[in-house]
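User: Could you go from structure to sequence for me? I need the amino acid at each position, not a summary. Structure tokens:
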């Protein structure tokens, strides 16, 4: 038996033994999509799977195959149903457009975009992946910039409070009559 058929047979055996299902295939039974491709020669395959317990596959709301960064494989996206309506965590990140008025931020991003674009073109195969790579880098940089600005602002506030407190102490020790 050739190695590929042996691996496929082993995976199918595990699926039967452990009652696992390929959740992407269950949710997209009629769709044809691939998780790996190469350009020369042109080959498309579905090599990547999410195998989950058959009893849990109803908890998967949606699943999709999406581009991934720095790999020739696509990612399989799963959206799970939330058993309760408790929304925890920070939620979705939204860009604070206030930074677009900050000259330091705009100049910093303008310097970094050509570098990120060159990295994306060098490492990634398609324009969608390069676009995702650019958005990812802008997001990470903006979050770091935002945190640094917040630390600087907090430090200035501490200095201001300490200065004000010292001035109040001096004024209280030397009241004018």
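Assistant: Here is the amino acid at each position, in order:
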């Amino acid at each position: 038996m050739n190695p590929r058929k042996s691996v496929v047979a082993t995976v199918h055996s595990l699926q039967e033994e452990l009652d696992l299902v390929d959740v992407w295939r269950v949710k997209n039974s009629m769709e044809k999509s691939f998780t790996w491709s190469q350009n020369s020669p042109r080959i498309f395959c579905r090599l990547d799977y999410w195998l989950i317990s058959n009893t849990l596959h109803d908890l998967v709301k949606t699943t999709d195959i999406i581009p991934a960064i720095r790999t020739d494989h696509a990612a399989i996206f799963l959206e799970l149903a939330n058993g309760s309506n408790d929304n925890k965590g920070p939620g979705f990140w939204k860009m604070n457009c206030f930074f677009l008025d900050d000259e330091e931020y705009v100049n910093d991003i303008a310097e970094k975009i050509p570098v990120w674009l060159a990295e994306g073109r060098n490492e990634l195969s398609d324009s969608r992946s390069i676009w995702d790579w650019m958005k990812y880098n802008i997001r990470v940089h903006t979050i770091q910039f935002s945190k640094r600005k917040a630390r600087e602002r907090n430090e200035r506030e501490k200095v201001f409070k300490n200065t004000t407190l010292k001035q109040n102490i001096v004024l209280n020790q030397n009241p004018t009559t």
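One structural detail worth keeping in mind: The chain has a mean pLDDT of 82.
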